[in-house]
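Quarterly update from the structural biology core.
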Amino acid sequence: MSDTPAPVYQRVKQAIISQIRAGHWQPHQRVPSESELVNQLGVSRMTINRALRELTSEGFLVRMQGVGTFVAEAKADTALLEVHNIADEIAARGHRHSSKILQLIARPASSEEAAALNIHPGQQVFYSQIVHYENDIPVQVEDRCINPLAAPDYMQQDFDQLTPYIYLTESAPLTAGEHIVEAVIPSANERELLQLAEHEPGLLIHRRTWSGKTVVSSSRLLYPGSRYRLFGRFTAPGA
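Predicted structure, tokenized:
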């Protein structure tokens, strides 16, 4: 067994983890700034910065650009094999959902959007962009294109009172869905909307839904990579 002491940044990490596990630092609590930790622990700012960066990537902390660093809650799950209402997912965790509508417009479909919705390029689509919050912390940017033939009243809905999921499941009952998942580097605007640190990755779900043979929606759902994980369960045939 080696008696070599752990590097200083590792000892700083363990000190912070101990504070969290002992309950002295609670989920969503703002942790001391880098300068404050330098003074408290008597180490260099570079050491503190490395410790905080690694703790963020390991899921112990959440760094919000221009706001500060906070204790992370255990990563929230979002369904991989099913289509759920994000408001219901948040409520199931005992938390409060809210949202902010950034865009709700009708416009011609791009070639990519038309292919996703199985319509002709230039045909009208409904487009919405909504940020969803969990206890006032942004957790999802939802970009959604809608086939007007499947959901003709989409533009008349009050999405401050209900989510697109609720309206769409009532107007065009879901019969099939498709998910494509990838890790991405969010754009500068997306980082701002989700309050992400500069190099924090995003977790992106491309989702299409069908009602019968009609493609109803094509969505781009972006989550903070440090705050979300995907969960799916399946049963093997014959089990």
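The mean pLDDT is 86.
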